[in-house]
């Protein structure tokens, strides 16, 4: 099972993840006129607007934060101090026109980032990226169990979808692992990453069910 550092949107968090020997980093990526900025919440000028900020914040009441200077994807990939950089799970945020997706694909190819995966909750973005960079691993992200219908329909049609990144809360029910087992039974090679895992018993249950990666907020947790 991969250990994936959640919201690795700053050099500090990435350095901590490298020291803790995480296998992969989940980063949140916004397109700002061709500049790819790492931040969980939206960026306007030098500010971040949202309860989480660029990465994780314990001060949820603080909605506006000073975020400049932001880490960009190009700076991250060029930073030799972080080399060798583990594979990334790149979560696309906001609007991504075709020219931005093409620029992103070119950037990843230039830096030979074959192990990096693209992730989004937007099927239309995922489809457009597939046409631009068909060999890239593409993962659908979902926070709600009742929105998995489109994924099941696409799998039944035989579409090439590498995996699912899902909120642990979306698996919560009277039989919490049933949706997960349903997905894995349909396609044993399908990648499943889970985030917002609340405790060790849940993690152990998910691991025994066959998940491929746990996306972890607090890097000292596992």
From TrEMBL:
Lineage top rank: taxon: Bacteria
Organism (species): Terrybacteria sp. (strain RIFCSPHIGHO2_01_FULL_58_15)
GO molecular function: phosphoric diester hydrolase activity
Protein name: GP-PDE domain-containing protein
Alphabetical GO biological process terms: lipid metabolic process
């Amino acid at each position: 099972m991969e250990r994936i550092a959640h919201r690795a949107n700053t050099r500090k968090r990435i350095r901590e993840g490298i020291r803790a020997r995480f296998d992969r980093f989940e980063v949140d990526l916004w397109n700002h006129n061709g500049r790819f900025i790492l931040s969980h919440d939206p960026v306007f000028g030098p500010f971040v607007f949202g309860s989480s900020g660029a990465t994780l914040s314990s001060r949820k009441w603080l909605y506006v934060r000073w975020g400049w200077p932001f880490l960009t994807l190009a700076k991250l990939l060029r930073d030799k101090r972080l080399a060798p950089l583990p594979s990334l799970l790149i979560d696309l945020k906001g609007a991504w026109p075709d020219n931005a997706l093409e620029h992103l694909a070119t950037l990843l190819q230039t830096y030979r980032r074959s192990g990096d995966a693209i992730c989004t909750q937007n099927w239309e973005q995922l489809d457009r990226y597939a046409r631009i960079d068909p060999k890239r691993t593409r993962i659908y992200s979902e926070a709600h169990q009742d929105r998995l219908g489109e994924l099941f329909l696409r799998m039944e049609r035989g579409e090439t979808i590498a995996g699912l990144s899902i909120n642990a809360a979306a698996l919560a029910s009277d039989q919490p692992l049933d949706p997960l087992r349903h997905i894995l039974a349909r396609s044993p090679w399908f990648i499943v990453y889970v985030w917002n895992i609340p405790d060790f018993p849940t993690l152990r249950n998910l691991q025994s069910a066959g998940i491929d990666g746990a996306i972890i907020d607090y890097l000292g947790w596992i």
